[in-house]
């Protein structure tokens, strides 16, 4: 859950020096969820979610579900193309691209072993496809993994990443290092889970424009309920997914 007295998520506290190893309860077990693709033959993807993760990888976020549907409806974004997802979590949008005709897909997230192992597990559960697909650990703003072509990604996927305001510069640097200059796009979908910080979320898109990119709003969809009903702030905003496409200016 997101708290109103915090602008960032902190890592769990380490064990105190005299804390017994079994002082804390065992972390929750992994869970499994499914997502049925919109287009024929309407395969059902099985997604394992890590039991708990300070990077929020233990949820299947509304933005990821809506983005997956958007991609199915707009296959020209990825069909026969190379796709990179940043902050993949369970990987639904990029896995959707793999099953629906992308040639190459790289799913990345923070290099936390349970997160990356879980992504690879979800890849192993995919129905038949012909994509070359991998999962790698990556920290935004750092040297790119060998499997990510510099300036060679037709589509870069960002799903519910804008809440991490302090990392916007690094996130944009990574997008600009990877998205193809001719015809490449990034898709940026998010929900303002902390509505009082919406302007800070949107600061990423303003930064994109400042750094020579074009930002186009492509979606605003209000869902039946927010991710966390009990959270604070404007309920309508917390149940809304906003979607943007970002690309280089022509010329």
> Using DSSP, what is the number of strands?
9
Structural class: alpha/beta
List the strand order in the largest sheet.
5-4-3-6-7-9-8
H/E series: EEHEHEHEEHEHEHE
Instruction: Give a short account of the largest sheet.
Output: 7 strands, mixed
Tell me, what's the shape? Answer: globular
Q: Number of helical runs?
A: 6
Helix content: 10-25%
Task: Pick out the low-confidence regions.
Answer: 8-21
**Average pLDDT level:** 90
SSE inventory with pairings:
Layout: E1 31-36, E2 44-49, H1 62-73, E3 82-86, H2 92-99, E4 104-109, H3 113-124, E5 132-137, E6 155-159, H4 168-178, E7 185-190, H5 198-210, E8 213-222, H6 235-238, E9 240-248
Parallel strand pairs: 3-4, 3-6, 4-5, 6-7
Antiparallel strand pairs: 1-2, 7-9, 8-9
Helix pairs in contact: 1-2
Q: Care to describe what's here?
A:
It contains 6 helices and 9 strands. By secondary structure, it is an alpha/beta fold. The strands form 2 sheets. A 7-stranded mixed sheet has the order 5-4-3-6-7-9-8, sandwiched between helices. A two-stranded antiparallel sheet has the order 1-2. β4 (104-109), α3 and β5 (132-137) form a beta-alpha-beta unit. α1 (62-73) packs parallel to α2.
Task: Record keyword descriptors for this entry.
251 residues, alpha/beta, seven-stranded mixed beta sheet, two-stranded antiparallel sheet, 6 helices, 24% helix, globular
Characterize this entry briefly:
This protein has 251 residues and is an alpha/beta fold. It is built from six helices and nine strands.
